[in-house]
Structures are given as structure tokens and as C-alpha cells.
Specification:
It is elongated, with a radius of gyration of 19 Å. The chain starts with a helix and ends with a helix. It is an all-alpha fold and about 90 residues long.
Amino acid sequence: MHADLALKMMADLFWTGLIVCLPLLLLTMVVGLVISVLQVVTQVQEMSLTFVPKLLTAGAVIIVAGPWMLRKLSQFTIHLWSGIPAMF
């Protein structure tokens, strides 16, 4: 295995990981930001007020985008395994 092939594989790995995690991270960050603004406006400092909506959002995103995430990870794995004979 050459160094450029290893670097390409690592870049593909990180890019796929970013693409798969992005919807979950983005939506939980937006919900956390909205809840934080509401806490500042109302001066209610309850820890469960931030945790529960983010948890529900993460669950909803996994339910909605889960098949797409799994398909993307499966495509990456199939591409990686099918490229093994070409490495040697």
C-alpha cells in the first residue's frame, strides 16, 4: 500500500464520517441554540430543559435520516472492501 492510497482512504473515511454525522450534529446544535436563547430571555436555568429537546431531536433525526446514514456507510464499506484486490 502506498502512502498516497492510505491518505486517500483516510480522507474518504473522514469525509464520509462528516457527511453522515452532519445532520444529527447540525440539528441538535440548532435546537440547543434556540433553547439557550429561550433560557436567556426567560431566565429559567433548568438543565433538563436543554437536555430533553436535544435528545428528542437526535432521536427524530436518527429515525428520519437513519436509513440514509446506513446506506451511506454501507456504500463506503462496499467501496472499501471491493478496492482491496487493487491494493496489492
